[in-house]
From TrEMBL:
Residues in coiled coil: none
Protein name in UniProt: Mini-circle protein
Originating organism: Nocardioides currus
InterPro entries: DinB/YfiT-like, MST-like
Xref: Pfam families: MST
Disordered: region residues: 1-22
Superkingdom per UniProt: Bacteria
Length: 182
């Protein structure tokens, strides 16, 4: 286990990519700013780890791991932005197969190919979600389980989803190599 070495911070403050955004104006920029900061946090928490380290499970009996979080968040991005906001409910959900536990589980061993596939899926879904937000009003109303819901509520939910899972990622990463914080 190592110590982070930056007064408990993950990175020196002047090297944190989340600090580059600068001031924002308006609701959309604020919401997107928080969402992007959490997306970046997930990437930072996984940075520099081997496939085996990324696949390290949290506390039993949980199947949660950093790799599982990346896969799960690809599923969440796809579901909310493609299926719900874009109203493509016929699109099969990622990792829907029995036993894949919403992306947290996978068949076989974690290897470089699985890690690359997970990051490719996640980055593709994030890129698509960014396009959707760029062309969609926060006031747009979509159906969520029979309830009319504004896109704004979905974006807030995504921030909450990332915030919760980034907390998990922080704890898992600390168990893997001692790095924590920020």
């Amino acid at each position: 286990m190592t110590n982070p070495g930056f007064d408990g911070m993950w990175l020196p403050q002047d090297q944190d990519p989340r600090a580059e955004a600068g001031p924002v104006r308006g609701e959309l920029d604020t919401l997107v700013g928080y969402l992007e900061a959490y997306r970046t946090t997930l990437e930072l928490k996984c940075d520099g780890l081997t496939p085996e380290q990324l696949a390290t499970r949290s506390v039993p009996p949980s199947a949660m791991s950093l790799l599982g979080l990346v896969r799960h968040m690809a599923r969440v991005e796809q579901s909310w932005f493609r299926r719900v906001i874009e109203e493509d409910m016929d699109l099969p959900r990622l990792f829907q197969d029995e036993g894949l536990d919403a992306g947290f589980a996978w068949p076989g061993e974690a290897d470089e190919a699985l890690v690359e596939e997970a990051w490719s899926l996640w980055r593709g879904e994030v890129a698509y979600a960014r396009e959707v937000l760029a062309r969609t009003s926060l006031e747009k109303v979509v159906d969520v389980h029979g309830e009319p819901t504004e896109v704004r509520d979905i974006v807030v939910h995504m921030i909450e989803e990332y915030a919760r899972h980034c907390g998990h990622a922080d704890l898992i990463r600390e168990c893997v190599d001692g790095r924590a914080g920020q």
